[in-house]
Amino acid sequence: MSRNKRVVVIPMKENNQRLSGKNVKLLGGTPLYQWCLSTMCEVDVDRIVLDIWGSQLATQVTTELLQLHADGTIENDAPEISVIPRIPELRDEMIGGDKLLAPFVTDPGTIYMQAHVTSPFVSPEAYTAAFEQFDEDPDFECTASVTSIQQRVWYRGTPVNFNVFGTIQRTQDLTSVDVENGAFFAFRGSYYLREGNRFGTSRKQAVMSLEYPDTVDIDTAEDFEEAERVVAQMAGGGDD
């Protein structure tokens, strides 16, 4: 099976509204962004782009990457890693993730992935499985990571996945509802260049359900505390 070229874009910004400095906040003694980066270095990709908004953050990350290369944490056969300052016209809190990809998506034949450092526990196997969908089906265009919820879900007073009339379905018999968790989006360059988005408008798309703790997404201080509990459990020092 032939493999398409693979490029990963990881957006980062210096000033985070809900949790200040979260991208470099230490999680288990390691800056948060390095969890995603080190995992991605285990995946068969050609290039990793760190799209950074903030000069101090860019300087810190560049310095730390040099050290990671020097001490062998990032090995010589790792993918090419580039630190790219975000272009001025995209330095706006109201600009969505789709638009941030525009400077990097240039080749129709390349498979691009936008991954987020706020999802530190996504496994290399999950990233690999996302990429392999494109190799297995030349018509497949895009995928997004989701959390599947098998519970009774309501939206604005209306049941989404169950019938309130007649026999109440058992939870295990409900149709699951998929919620984007933001861990990653992957897509063909041709799809993005045609549609201007990373996921959602293709006839050849699919979601990819992740399991806990891959689904942990850090936006708030409470989320970070949850991530710290996961790290403690991984080290054998936390409660089950």
Task: Explain how this protein is built.
The structure is a single chain. The chain is α/β, with parallel strands linked by helices. It has a single domain (6-234), classed as Spore Coat Polysaccharide Biosynthesis Protein SpsA, Chain A, CATH 3.90.550. The protein has helices at residues 32-40, 55-70, 97-100, 124-136, 189-195, 221-234, and strands at residues 6-13, 26-27, 30-31, 47-53, 80-85, 111-115, 142-149, 154-155, 158-159, 177-188, 205-209. Strands 5-4-1-6-10-7-11 form a 7-stranded mixed sheet. It is globular. The mean pLDDT is 95.
Considering the chains and any ligands shown, give keywords for the structure.
single chain, 240 residues, alpha/beta, Spore Coat Polysaccharide Biosynthesis Protein SpsA, Chain A, seven-stranded mixed beta sheet, two-stranded antiparallel sheet, 6 helices, globular
